[in-house]
Amino acid sequence: MxxxxxxxxxxxxxxxxxxxxxxxxxxxxxxxxxxxxxxQQLSTIQSWEIRGRIALFVxxxxxxxxxxxxxxxDLSIIKLEAxxxxxxxxxxxxxxxxxxxxxxxxxxxxQNAEQVLYQSTGWSIPVEGLKSWIKxxxxxxxxxxxxxxxxxxxxxxxxxxxxxxxxxxxPSQLANRTTPVLPRKIYMKRNDxxxxxxxxxxxxxxxxxxxxxFPSFED
Length: 219
Hints:
By secondary structure, the protein is mainly beta. It has one domain: Lipoprotein localisation LolA/LolB/LppX (outer membrane lipoprotein receptor (LolB), chain A, Clam), CATH 2.50.20. Helix content is 14%, strand content 41%. The protein contains three helices and twelve strands. The protein has helices at 29-43, 113-121, 127-133; strands at residues 6-7, 48-58, 61-71, 75-82, 87-94, 97-102, 107-110, 144-148, 154-159, 162-170, 182-190, 193-203. Strands 1, 2, 3, 4, 5, 6, 7, 8, 9, 10, 11 and 12 form a twelve-stranded antiparallel sheet that branches. It is globular and about 55 Å long.
């Protein structure tokens, strides 16, 4: 498979560290209670439309990708696009079936999103874990270690050998009186692979009427 465009480090060199201000409020029992409430509230969010950017660091290479992620009850569509038309892949999960399509017309399939993505790109991205991590919470399939602030938001999580740092939170169109703020900037790393995710738009997902990867612009 043709790799997506490799960029020199035109992106900012990103630190994976989370620093705590000296005047930060102390973490209390109430903070942990708020963290538990966030987990319960955010776990109920099962559909969205996310648009943003990903900087993918693999060894000494950097991939700069656009992100479009639509999630519904039984359908997940993730599009990763390199700039200037250098390549696009779509990873679709419908029920238990995974299909990956490329802009060159190649197709891969299986029942594990991470394996299919690795087979086609060589990138070991934790797709299933991201469904929870991108909301700022852990998933329930393995042990985890959180680091929270006084308000109950996660500063970082360690899970599945990944360290996920939440660099910035921001209200989104999903947020309301009962939904907490959601992450906008996330940095995560495992071994020689790291991702910086910046979410520009995050809103409730409308019903998808078409999953066509390359629509016609002839009309």
